[in-house]
Write a structure and sequence with these properties.
The structure holds two protein chains of two kinds.
Chain A: H1 3-34, H2 41-59, H3 61-87, H4 92-114, E1 130-133, E2 136-139, H5 140-162, H6 164-174, H7 176-181, H8 186-207, H9 218-233, H10 238-257, H11 264-278, H12 306-325, H13 329-351, H14 362-377, H15 383-405, H16 410-430, H17 432-435, E3 441-442, H18 453-475, H19 478-488, H20 490-495, H21 500-526, E4 528-529, H22 536-549, H23 556-574, H24 578-592, H25 596-600
Antiparallel strand pairs in A: 1-2, 3-4
Helix pairs in contact in A: 1-5, 1-8, 1-9, 1-10, 2-3, 2-4, 2-8, 2-9, 3-8, 4-22, 4-24, 5-6, 9-10, 9-11, 9-16, 10-11, 12-18, 13-18, 13-21, 13-22, 13-23, 14-15, 14-16, 14-21, 15-21, 18-21, 19-21, 22-23, 23-24
Chain B: E1 4-13, E2 16-26, E3 31-35, H1 42-49, E4 57-62, E5 65-66, H2 72-77, E6 80-83, H3 95-106, H4 122-132, H5 147-158, E7 165-169, H6 177-193, E8 197-201, H7 205-211, E9 214-219, E10 222-227, H8 229-234, H9 236-243
Parallel strand pairs in B: 3-8, 3-9, 6-7, 7-8
Antiparallel strand pairs in B: 1-2, 1-4, 4-5, 9-10
Helix pairs in contact in B: 3-4, 3-5, 4-5
C-alpha cells in the first residue's frame, strides 16, 4: 500500500466512523438514563434510511434527511411514552425482548411500505463530486461525513455539560433515584432522551443514504456494529463511543483496503476481544454496578415429586407411540418441537439458573447445523459421524466465545453474545465457496437406515429427551448448585471457593454443546441449512420460548418451545407478516404475563 | 510466628487513602476487635484480607504463606472464612443448601455433574447450623430470612472449611442484645476449641469490651492505638477520637 492509498483508506474509515458514532451515541445515551438497551435502535436507523430515500423523491435529499431524522425522533418519543414507560420496572430480559419485538414490527412495516428490494437513494446535491487528495480521488460527501462526527460529539458535549437539561441527564445517569428524589421530572426527561437518541439514529441512517442503499437487513447489522462500538467504548460513555467508532471503522476500512473485505467482521471481533481482555468495561467505561438478576426471588429448586416424574415418563412414552397413529405432518411438527425444546432448555440452562442473558444462542444451534452439513458435504464424513461430531463444533464455538462472555454480565453480556452470533451469521452468509452463502447448503440427508420419517423421529426423540433430561439433572448436581450460587451472589460464591467464571464458562460450553445437538438434528431433518438457522431472530425465538414457558420454572421452557413452534407453524401459513404478529405477541406477553405460561399453569409445582 | 502477619498494608481509591501502613499480628485462638468510626478503613482492611481487593502495598501472610493479591476463592482455600457487613447468601437456596454447597466446595466436589447436591454432607451441614443456632431454619429459603438470622447462616457457611482465621464484619449489627451475646459466645468457643483466630469489626463498645482479647483502633486509614480493652479505655486519644467521654 502506498502512502496515498493509506491516507485515502484512513479518510474512508473516518467517514464510516461518523454514522457509526451517531448510532452508538444514541444507544449509549438512552442506556445511561433509562437503563434499557434499545434493540430497536438499528430499526430506527433503518427507518431513517427508508424515510430519507422516500421523501427525497419529492423534496430533495437535504430536506428529506432532516425530516426523516425528526420523524424518527417523534416516533422514538411515541415509543417511549406508549411502551417503554411500562417497562422500566420489569426485569431486563423482558425489556430486551420487548425492544426486540419492535425490531420485528419495524422490519415487517418497512417490507409492507417499501417492498423487499433494496432502495437506492439520491446523491447529495452540492456534494456529488470527488476531490483530488494525495493523487487519489475522494468523494466530497465523505469529507462532509468526516466533519459530522466530531461536530455531533462537540454538540453533545456542550449539551450535556453546559445546559441545565444536560446536567439533569447526567444526574439521572449517575443516580436515577436520587435525581427523582430531588424533584427532576423523570417522565419527560426519559422521553426527551429517548427522542434525542432516536434522532441521532435516524440522522445516522438518513446521512448514510448516499453511500449505501436502504435494505431490510441493515437493522441488525448496524445494531451489532453499534453494540461492538458501545462495548469497546464503554457503555454510557459518549467520548468512548466516538473513540471506539473511529477504531472500529478504521480497522474495517483497512481490512477492506488490504483485500480482506470478507474478513471485516472477524477483524472487528478480534479488536473487540483484545479491548475486552485489557479493559472489560471498554476503553472509557466504568465497571457497571451489579444489575438486577433475572431471578432474585426465585424459590429453591425442589426435587420433582414422584407424580411429576411419572407424568413426564408417561409423556415420553406417549411421544414414542405417536408414529403408530400418524406418520404424516404430525411427526414433522413433533420433531421440530423436540429439537426446539432441547434448544430452549439449553438456553434456559444458562439464562435462568446461570443468570447469563444470551441474545446469540442460535450461533451454537447454527454451528451444530452447519457443522453437520459441512462435515457431510465438504469433508465427506458419514452421516453418523457428522451427527456426533457437529455438536462438538458448537461446543468449541461456545468455549471460545464463552471465554469472553463470562467476563461480562447483564446487558453487556447480552450485547456481546449478540455480536458473536452476528459474526457467525456473517461468516455463513458471506463465505459463498464454503458455506453456500445466502443459499446455504442443500442435500444434508440422513443415512438410509434413518431416512424414513419414523426412524428419524425416534432418533430425534431419543436424543432430545436424553439431552433435556441430562441438562435438568445437572442442575441438581453440585455443579448446578455452584452455577446458581454464582448467579445469586458472586461475592459469597467467591468467598466459599467457587470459581465463578470457570463455573459459568463450563455451563456456557455445555449449553452450546446441547444447542449444537439440536442444530445437527434439525439440519438432517430438513435436508438443507440456510443462514437463517443461526440468525439473531432465531436466538430471539429461543428466548421467547423460554419466556413463554416461564424462566423461573424448570419444565416451562420445554412447554414454551412446543407452544411457540406450533403457533409459528400455524401463523406463518396464515399471515404474510407473521413476524410482526410475533412481535405483537411478545409485547403482549411482556406487558401482561411476565411470569410466562408455565407460571400461569402452576408450573412452580412441577419444579 | 503469629498465625496472621499483616505488614504496612495500604490502599487508596483515587485520591483517598483508605488504609495507610497498617501492620498487626493475630495469634491462633485470639479474638481481636477492629474498631473505628465510619470510613476509618475497617471494611477495606477486611476486603484485602480475604482477597476481595488487592492492596496497593504491603504484605499479608497466613501461617507464613503470602496471600495478598490472591482472589477470594484461593484465600478461602487457605483457611479464611468471612461474613459480610451486608449479608451475602444464595437466595434461591435453602439455608441447609447454602451450607451444603460450602461443604461441597470444601471437599472439592463442585465439578461433579451427577450426584444430587441436596443429599451431600447433610449431617455435617446440620451440625454447623446447630452450632450457629439456626438449625430450625434449615429448610427455609435464604431469600425470606430476617437479617439477624442471615448473619448466623453466614457464620455457618463461613465455618464449613474449618477456617484458621474467621473475619466477621459487624457480626451483631441488626441483632437483639441477647442474640449478640449468643453469637459472640459462639465465636469465643471457636477460638478456644478450634484455635480459630477471630477478627471482627464492631460498633457496640459493650460487645467489644466483653468479647475481645485485644482491640485495634483505626482512624482515617491508620492504626492509632492497640491493646487490651482495659488499656484502651484508659487511652486519652481513643477516648477523644472514638469513645467520646462517655
Amino acid at each position: 500500500m502506498s502512502g496515498s492509498a493509506i491516507l485515502l483508506q484512513f479518510l474512508n474509515g473516518l467517514a464510516g466512523a461518523s454514522s457509526l458514532f451517531l448510532l452508538a451515541a444514541g444507544l449509549s445515551l438512552i442506556f445511561g438514563v433509562t437503563r434499557i438497551v434499545n434493540f430497536a435502535h438499528g430499526s430506527l436507523y433503518m427507518l431513517g434510511m427508508y424515510l430519507a430515500v422516500w421523501l427525497s423523491e419529492s423534496v430533495g435529499f437535504w430536506p428529506s434527511a432532516l425530516t426523516a431524522a425528526l420523524a424518527v425522533a417523534a416516533l422514538g418519543a411515541a415509543i417511549e411514552m406508549s411502551l417503554l414507560r411500562r417497562l422500566y420496572p420489569v426485569p431486563e430480559l423482558l425489556q430486551l425482548l420487548a425492544t426486540f419485538a419492535l425490531v420485528l414490527i419495524a422490519r415487517d412495516f418497512a417490507l409492507w411500505a417499501w417492498g423487499p428490494e433494496d432502495l437506492l437513494g439520491p446523491r447529495a446535491p452540492g456534494l456529488e463530486d470527488a476531490v483530488e487528495i494525495a493523487g487519489g480521488r475522494f468523494p466530497e460527501y465523505d469529507l462532509f461525513l468526516i466533519v459530522v462526527g466530531p461536530l455531533v460529539l462537540a454538540a453533545l458535549h456542550l449539551l450535556l455539560t453546559r445546559t441545565r437539561w444536560g446536567i439533569l441527564v447526567r444526574a439521572a445517569t449517575q443516580d436515577r433515584d436520587m435525581a427523582g428524589a430531588l424533584g427532576v421530572n423523570q417522565k419527560w426527561l426519559f422521553t426527551e432522551v429517548f427522542a434525542l437518541g432516536a434522532l441521532l439514529a435516524g440522522l445516522g441512517g438518513a446521512l448514510s443514504v448516499p453511500r449505501e442503499p436502504a435494505n431490510l437487513t441493515i437493522d441488525l447489522s448496524v445494531l451489532s456494529d453499534a453494540f461492538v462500538v458501545v462495548v469497546v467504548g464503554g457503555l454510557g460513555s459518549i467520548p468512548g463511543a466516538f473513540l471506539a467508532a473511529l477504531l472500529i471503522a478504521e480497522v474495517k476500512a483497512f481490512a477492506i483496503g488490504l483485500g480482506f473485505s470478507k474478513a471485516t467482521l472477524v477483524v472487528e471481533f478480534i479488536v473487540m476481544a483484545a479491548v475486552l481482555v485489557l479493559r472489560p468495561w471498554g476503553l472509557l467505561g466504568r465497571e457497571a454496578a451489579p444489575l438486577r438478576g433475572p431471578a432474585a426471588l426465585e424459590p429453591p429448586l425442589a426435587l420433582p415429586s414422584r407424580n411429576v416424574l411419572r407424568a413426564l415418563l408417561a409423556l415420553a412414552a406417549a411421544l414414542a407411540l405417536v408414529p403408530l397413529l400418524s406418520r404424516g405432518y404430525a411427526l414433522v411438527l413433533l420433531s421440530d418441537v423436540l429439537v426446539f425444546a432441547l434448544f430452549a432448555v439449553s438456553l434456559h440452562f444458562i439464562t435462568g439458573p446461570g443468570g447469563m442473558l444470551s441474545f446469540g444462542h442460535a450461533a451454537y444451534f447454527g454451528l451444530g447445523a452447519y457443522g453437520a452439513g459441512l462435515l457431510l458435504l465438504r469433508a465427506g464424513a458419514p452421516m453418523e459421524a457428522a451427527l456426533v461430531l457437529a455438536p462438538l463444533a458448537a461446543g468449541i464455538g461456545a468455549l471460545a466465545f464463552g471465554w469472553f462472555c463470562v467476563r461480562l454480565s447483564g446487558v453487556y453480556l447480552a450485547m456481546l453474545t449478540l455480536a458473536f452470533a452476528q459474526i457467525v451469521w456473517s461468516v455463513a452468509f458471506q463465505w459463498d465457496a464454503f458455506t453456500g452463502g445466502s443459499n446455504g447448503l442443500i442435500g444434508v440427508w440422513p443415512s438410509a437406515w434413518l431416512a424414513s420419517r419414523t426412524a428419524y423421529y425416534y432418533l430425534t426423540l431419543g436424543a432430545c429427551l436424553a439431552g433435556i433430561a441430562i441438562l435438568w439433572r445437572v442442575l441438581y448436581s453440585p455443579f448446578g448448585y455452584a452455577l446458581r450460587a454464582s448467579r445469586d451472589s458472586p461475592l459469597r460464591a467467591g468467598a466459599i471457593g467457587i470459581d465463578v467464571r470457570a463455573q459459568q464458562w463450563a455451563a456456557f460450553t455445555l449449553a452450546g454443546l446441547a444447542a449444537g445437538i439440536a442444530g445437527a438434528l434439525y439440519a438432517f431433518s430438513k435436508g438443507s441449512i440456510s443462514p437463517e438457522t443461526l440468525s439473531v431472530p432465531r436466538s430471539v425465538d429461543a428466548l421467547v420460548m423460554v419466556l413463554l414457558g416461564g424462566i423461573q420454572t424448570l419444565t416451562g421452557p420445554a412447554w414454551g418451545a412446543a407452544l411457540f413452534t406450533w403457533l409459528q407453524d400455524s401463523a406463518s401459513r396464515e399471515f404474510d407478516y407473521w413476524r410482526a404478529v410475533l412481535g405483537a405477541v411478545i409485547l403482549a406477553l411482556v406487558l401482561a404475563l411476565p411470569g410466562g405460561v408455565g407460571g400461569l399453569l402452576g408450573g412452580r409445582s412441577t419444579r | 510466628m503469629s498465625l496472621l502477619e499483616v505488614r504496612d498494608l495500604s490502599k487508596s481509591y483515587g485520591g483517598v487513602q483508605a488504609v495507610r501502613g497498617v501492620s498487626f499480628d493475630l495469634d491462633a485462638g485470639e479474638r481481636v476487635a477492629m474498631i473505628g468510626p465510619n470510613g476509618a478503613g475497617k471494611t477495606t482492611c477486611f476486603n484485602m484480607l480475604n482477597g476481595q481487593i488487592a492492596p496497593d502495598a504491603g504484605s499479608i501472610a497466613l501461617g507464613g504463606r503470602p496471600l495478598a493479591g490472591l482472589p477470594p476463592r484461593k484465600v478461602w482455600r487457605l483457611g479464611v472464612g468471612r461474613t459480610f457487613q451486608i449479608t451475602a447468601t444464595f437466595g434461591s437456596m435453602t439455608v441447609r443448601e447454602n451450607v451444603q454447597l460450602a461443604l461441597l466446595s470444601h471437599h472439592g466436589r463442585l465439578g461433579s455433574l451427577w450426584p444430587l447436591a441436596s443429599d451431600a454432607h447433610v449431617e455435617e451441614a446440620e451440625a454447623l447450623l446447630e452450632r450457629a443456632g439456626v438449625k430450625e431454619l434449615a429448610a427455609r429459603a435464604c431469600a425470606v430470612l430476617a437479617y439477624g438470622d442471615l448473619k448466623r447462616v453466614e457464620l455457618a457457611i463461613a465455618l464449613a472449611n474449618r477456617p484458621r482465621l474467621l473475619l466477621m464484619d459487624e457480626p451483631t449489627a441488626g441483632m437483639a442484645p441477647s442474640e449478640r451475646g449468643d453469637l459472640m459466645r459462639l465465636a469465643a468457643e471457636l477460638a478456644r476449641e478450634a484455635r480459630t483466630a477471630v477478627l471482627f469489626t464492631e460498633h457496640d463498645m459493650d460487645v467489644v469490651f466483653e468479647h475481645a482479647d485485644r482491640v485495634l483502633v483505626l482512624d482515617r486509614g491508620e492504626l492509632i492505638a492497640r491493646g487490651s480493652p482495659g488499656e484502651l479505655r484508659a487511652d486519652p486519644r481513643v477516648r477523644e477520637g472514638y469513645l467520646g467521654d462517655a
